[in-house]
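tool_call predict_complex ligand=zinc ion
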Amino acid sequence: MRPHASSAARALLLALACLAAPPAAAQTPASGRPTRAPSSKAARSVPTPESVLGFQPGADFHLATYEESIAYFRALDAASDRVRLLDVGRTTLGRDWILAAISSTENLERLDHYREVARRLAHPEGLDDTAAHALAREGKALVDISGGLHATEVAGAQHTIRLAYDLVSGADADPRIRAILDNVILLLWPSLNPDGQTIVGEWYRANVGTPYEVAPLPRLYQAYVGHDNNRDAYMLNMVESRVVERTWRTWEPQIIYVHHQSSPLPTRIWLPPFADPIANRAPPLMSRTVNTIGMTIAQMLESREMPGAVHMGTGFDAWYPGYVDYAHAPESGGVLDGNRAVPLCDAALLHAERLSPESPPSPAGVSLPQPVARRLVASGRRRGLHAHGVACRAGLRRQVP
Ligand SMILES: [Zn+2]
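tool_result ok
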């Protein structure tokens, strides 16, 4: 029985296409129920991120804190029937924690129904093949994307703001986005580590333009455990781990995509397949699905002349069973990615300027196609990023006495 085959395939194709690119109601707790009732907001225009934040997400020398990010998501929710904010709980430091369900208006009106379909398929005891396939056809693909749980890997939590805007604002004019929203219910977490996003954002803001602009954070961005918030899935000690686990088990998304930011230089993004060893209890079908998703993303990036994706290597195996974001469960495909961490400047340009087209480096253990390095250089120049990069470097130099 393969009740997930059709919905997973739809999720793969449509979510990847997406990646390439109100009146108050009673709040209910972590089940992820709506914090607002559906209402018609069609007449309101969709606010741009910069109209709320004062800068574009990802702009140099700016980082949105979690509060600023949520202010944007609330403004988006107030303006569009394609967004529904869900209350999932509270963080260790007491922040209200939300995720955004983004889909067509019709799908959001039946959100509880589609959640139940996904849950039934994820726990198929008693379902026969016919009923399972009928449910798979009836359901929508639930795709979960989050802004990362390592707060100093800043790109993810800035990206989720932009992704929400692109999907909600683009559906009227772009049939591709409309098709995504018709077939996919995106569960978009602004961040998996809200406390850390604000801690890092405020630290950076206090130091930007000073000699300490890129000084390391002098405290943990996750209470007690810092970076090891991604090693807690086997005992769920952290509040955040429990909220995430409960939410994923409440919704049973078929794809869970968690951002990281640590692709080895000179590459741009690391994607599955993982390096060996792979956990021996990971169901083979899930591993194959994760690998397929990773390669499909890379294929799409290549087709759009966005070089720099790599796979496997030596740094990212899938052996440890306690990662929050590599679920050794048969019903979901968990995906990690690592965008190279150059948080304050344009990574492509910095990479390009460290490379020579004639002698691209080949870091040990990195499966980097040789043409990629040359194309990184060409792409940085073609995009006219040189002056931008000089400004970046000037900013970085300020840290060096
Ligand atoms: Zn990370």
